Amino acid sequence: MAALKTALSAPTEADIAASGETPCKRLFLGMTAVIASARMRAVMQFVERIAQSKATVLISGESGCGKELIARALHEYSPRNGKPWIDINCAALPDHLFESEIFGFEKGAFSGAECQKQGMFELANQGTLFLDEIGELNLQNQSKLLRVLDGWPYYRLGGTRKIAVDVRIVAATNGDLENEVRLGRFRADLYHRLNQVNVAVPALRERPDDIGPLASLFLEQQNPLLSLTEEALEALECHSWPGNVRELKSLMVRAAFLANSAEIRREDLEPALQSVSQPAEPEPNYSLDKHEQEVIYHALEQTDGRRDRAAELLGISRRTLIRRLKLYGINPTRPLACGGTGVN
What we know:
Blueprint: H1 13-19, E1 25-28, E2 31-34, H2 38-50, E3 57-60, H3 67-77, E4 85-89, H4 98-103, E5 104-105, E6 117-118, H5 120-123, E7 128-132, H6 139-149, E8 154-155, E9 162-163, E10 168-173, H7 177-182, H8 188-194, E11 197-200, H9 211-222, E12 227-228, H10 230-238, H11 244-258, E13 263-264, H12 271-277, H13 288-302, H14 307-314, H15 318-328
Parallel strand pairs: 3-10, 3-11, 4-7, 7-10, 12-13
Antiparallel strand pairs: 1-2, 5-6, 8-9
Helix pairs in contact: 2-3, 6-8, 9-11, 10-12, 13-14, 14-15
């Protein structure tokens, strides 16, 4: 545990000047981090503290809030800096390819295996392996992963020689893994193995001081001559950003493309942002958002709080429903306002 209390020395002003960074910008494996708000400075200070530890880290936060950037920062601040950084998106990896991609395979292990291939663990040896969207793994693949995380040597598919590796594991999720454990969809032992240290990344709406610097960064990447007017910045800061930093970047790319002058004005932004910055007189009885919330509450009530069944009833995917629950602050694990039990 002593390693958890050891803080890396922060970069000096000379270091920052030599790297071309600014006091609120850092580069982590090619990704630029904006650390202007007090919330993000606190997160980064915590990351520096835990970086020298060998503990497995679970990064949690909404989609698009910057979890991969935090993972890269952990690697950069750690003694493994300069060693391999390997990342894999578990949600994008087909279930039947998981074992061969993670552990590798020998020539002839299966039809089409014409040569030996190293797995992700081998490639990351002495370095860091980042498992993004870890909550998307099925139970079978969770079991296969757990044994290696416990430090046991493993075989490549079709292999006869055990392979031992030294890898720092960092995982990320935008879901509620504790709830997934309660529902039997995520292994409790794997969850506790991954969650030795948790880093919670705040949503963009929770750190408005980052919005201006981030927007300026994204504009600069498109056209260094572009800037934001005060009115445009105010409109950005009033938006709720359900898509977080990813949504902000997409908006700035479009605004840079459509801009008719060197300044991005309020009217250059999307109509949705303009309406947020200039709200009309509220009419709660006719609010589309309120109506949608009531429909979601009703579906959860009808299905005793089961999100999978509620999503099916609503005709949407479970992940879409989860995003709506987060957007409206609905917690199905608590009693529902409409009288449901909220057990799921």
